[in-house]
Every structure is written in C-alpha cells, then in structure tokens.
Design goal:
By secondary structure, this protein is an alpha/beta fold. The protein contains ten helices and eight strands. Helix 6 links the parallel strand 2 and strand 3. InterPro entries: HAD-like_sf, HAD_hydro_PyrdxlP_Pase-like, HAD_sf, Pase_PHOSPHO-typ.
C-alpha cells in the first residue's frame, strides 16, 4: 500500500484534547492564559505562556510529565500502527508545536511511524525555557489565506505534500478543527476526507459538502476512526488489485475487512443537517 499517504491533525484527532490548553490548565495557569488571550495571536500567546511558566519555576520536565498524561482514545495507537503495517506513509499537519507533539509521540512509542511532522517550531533554549514560534512568520508577510490562522495555512502544506508525491498516491486526511477545512478543499476526487463529527471542520463541510471533491467519511471517536480508516485503506487495496484477492491485515477491533463486493458497507454520502 505504498500508494496511500495518511495525514493526521494532532489535537483532538490523535489526542483527545487541545495540547496547549492541556498544559496550561494542568500547570495551573488557566486564569493568566484567559486574561492574555484577547491581547495577542494564539501562537504568540503560547510562547508568552512558556515564558511565564519558566519564570514561575516550571521546568521542561514538568511540561513533559504533563504531556505524558495527555488523554487519548485507546484505539488510536493501534489504528496508527495498523495503517503503518499496511504500508501507508503517515504524516502530521498540526497547529500545535513540535515539542508537544514529539514528546507525546515518543511517550506513546509512535514517533518512528511518522515520516513528517508539519507544525509550529518548539524547542528548548539555552536558559531551559520552551520557545514556540509560528510555522509561517506572519510578522514578515501574510500567507494570504483568509480561511486559516495567520501562523499556519494547512492548505498550503497539503499542496506542498501533493506536489512532492510521486505517481498516483491517494491522501486520507483526518482532522477536527476549522483549520482543517482549507486542506479539505485541496483534496482531489481520488482522496478521502475524515472529519470528526460535530466538530468545527464537520460543521464547515456540512454548509456546502459539494465544495469537497474528496470522498467524506465522518468519525466520532477513536474506535470509529480506526474502523473507518482501515476500511478505506483496505478498500483502496482491493481496488488497486482490480478486485482480486488482496492481502488484508486483521486487527483486534472486530474489524471486518471489506472486499470489492461489500463496498456498500462503507457510507458513501455525507448526511447534511436539514
């Protein structure tokens, strides 16, 4: 299955919370965060919060320990490992930051499964303070997309990924937030969009599903994410083998691998609220 690239958002997709809020809340800085929130862009605010944490004696180890407690659905790790075992290339496109993401992935034993992480730079400086910078330096110029926050246009990242792919590779994109809407518009007819149901990207897609060229399959939790993701991968595998008997992976989640004769088991249409 070298022909599939699975692109994951991170916050509320791989993990079940917003990593920025999780760290701030768990370390007891929620009130200060809420006080400063109206005064600066989110990305700049997180860098400021790391400065405040450092000034109050919170260490990088304190932050890392909080990140290791980040909640996630128990089927997410098996889903990622199964997609990798099927030969898919896995990437992350996230508006979190590199330190948070890498710390969590390393704790879960998942970092090696991803070929690329596209996110806001985050690193520890010489004073032991975590610094967070924007993926796109909006202080110098705008990325020009009015759908996305000033620090990152995920649609531009997807376009770069598309331009780098060789051959007829399909993209499966999983996300939840409003920032995942722009990249969903960049996907082609051979691609798949997996929005988290009743989250911002789902609401935006439901306003006009016809704007999305990719096939849409919504999911609600980690169990449904795993089931649908592996069904789609297996379906593509069957199609690429022209309906012949394909080697399909079995997973321990009561997943019934699909064949060419059972495509109707996979929902094809996006239900739109009336």
């Amino acid at each position: 299955m070298a022909g599939i690239v699975v692109v994951f958002d991170f916050d509320k997709t791989i993990i079940d919370c917003d990593s920025d809020n999780w760290v701030v809340d768990e370390l007891g800085f929620t009130d200060l965060f809420n006080q400063l929130l109206p005064t600066m862009p989110w990305n700049s605010l997180m860098d400021r919060m790391m400065k405040e944490l450092h000034a109050q004696g919170k260490t990088i180890d304190d932050i890392a320990e909080v990140l290791k407690r980040t909640p996630l659905h128990p089927r997410i790790v098996p889903a990622i490992k199964a997609a990798n075992a099927l030969g898919c290339e896995l990437r992350i496109v996230s508006d979190a930051n590199l330190f948070f993401i890498e710390t969590i992935l390393e704790h879960l034993g998942l970092k090696e499964y991803f070929s690329e992480i596209n996110t806001n730079p985050g690193f520890v400086d010489g004073e032991g303070r975590l610094r967070i910078f924007p993926y796109h330096d909006f202080t110098k110029c705008s990325h020009g997309c009015n759908l996305c926050p000033p620090n990152m246009c995920k649609g531009m990242v997807i376009e770069r990924i598309q331009a780098s792919l060789e051959g007829k590779k399909k993209i499966i994109y999983l996300g939840d937030g409003s920032g995942d809407y722009c990249p969903s518009l960049k996907l082609g007819e051979a691609d798949y969009m997996m929005p988290r149901k009743n989250f911002p990207v789902w609401d935006l897609i439901c306003r006009n599903p016809m704007l999305i060229k990719a096939e849409i399959h919504e999911w609600s939790d980690g169990e449904e994410l795993e089931r649908l993701l592996l069904q789609i991968i297996n379906m593509i595998s069957v199609e690429e083998n022209n309906g012949s008997s394909a080697q399909l992976i079995s997973v321990d989640c009561k997943l019934q691998t699909i064949s060419a004769s059972t495509h109707e088991a996979l929902p094809q249409a996006l239900p739109v609220p009336q």
